[in-house]
């Protein structure tokens, strides 16, 4: 059993990523695209920051905390700076820049950096590593990120699942055709 991978066969069936793009074009407005990028950037940034902070604290990462003048810089500082930059773009009003995926990604990332240290901002005490509510906050933010990305464009995700399922079934069927 050999799959037909000839160029002619590839031209007849669009690649999966191309079909996802087609689904996005059909189901997502520019606003929904920006929201999806924002939510995904939030989730990825938040997860990355959680991993890095645990790695620094656990000693399994080769670097330490960021400091300036002997003062520890919390990652919410970077988040505030990022959101200030996004705000400048929004206030300026350049529509091409405002709608750019990089702006949505920066907004999501900046928000995640701030949200991850929200207890510090709220109490003005470094309670980042206390057990009190830490697990529930971690789980809640992860779920919030995934849910936000899903709910923002539910029809698009359903179409992606349908297209992917069809693509896998078609690929499986092509590989099962006997040659000879």
Descriptive notes:
By secondary structure, this protein is mostly helical. It is built from nine helices and two strands. The radius of gyration is 22 Å and the shape is globular.
Quote the average pLDDT: 79
The strand line-up of the biggest sheet is: 1-2
Tally of helical runs: 9
Helix percentage range: over 70%
* Low-pLDDT sequence parts: none
Q: Give the percentage of residues in beta strands.
A: under 5%
Task: State the total count of DSSP E strands.
Answer: 2
User: In sequence order, what are the helices and strands, one letter per element?
Assistant: HHHEEHHHHHH
Structural class determined from secondary elements? mainly alpha
Please describe the topology of this protein:
Layout: H1 7-12, H2 16-27, H3 30-58, E1 67-68, E2 71-72, H4 75-92, H5 95-98, H6 101-116, H7 118-123, H8 134-152, H9 154-175
Antiparallel strand pairs: 1-2
Helix pairs in contact: 2-9, 3-6, 3-8, 4-6
Structure in a nutshell:
This protein is an all-alpha fold and 180 residues long. It is built from nine helices and two strands.
Top keywords for this entry?
9 helices, mainly alpha, 2 strands, 180 residues
């Amino acid at each position: 059993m050999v799959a037909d991978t000839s160029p002619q066969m590839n031209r007849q069936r669009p690649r999966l990523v191309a079909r996802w793009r087609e689904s996005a074009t059909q189901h997502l407005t520019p606003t929904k695209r920006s929201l999806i990028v924002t939510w995904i950037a939030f989730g990825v940034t938040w997860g990355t920051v959680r991993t890095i902070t645990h790695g620094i604290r656990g000693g399994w990462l080769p670097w330490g905390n960021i400091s300036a003048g002997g003062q520890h810089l919390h990652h919410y500082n970077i988040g505030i700076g990022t959101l200030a930059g996004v705000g400048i773009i929004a206030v300026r009003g350049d529509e091409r820049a405002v709608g750019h995926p990089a702006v949505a990604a920066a907004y999501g990332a900046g928000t995640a950096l701030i949200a991850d240290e929200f207890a510090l901002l709220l109490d003005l005490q470094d309670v980042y590593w206390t057990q009190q509510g830490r697990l529930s906050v971690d789980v809640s933010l992860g779920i919030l990120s995934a849910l936000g990305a899903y709910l923002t464009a539910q029809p698009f995700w359903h179409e992606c699942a349908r297209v992917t399922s069809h693509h896998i079934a078609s690929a499986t069927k092509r590989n099962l055709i006997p040659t000879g």
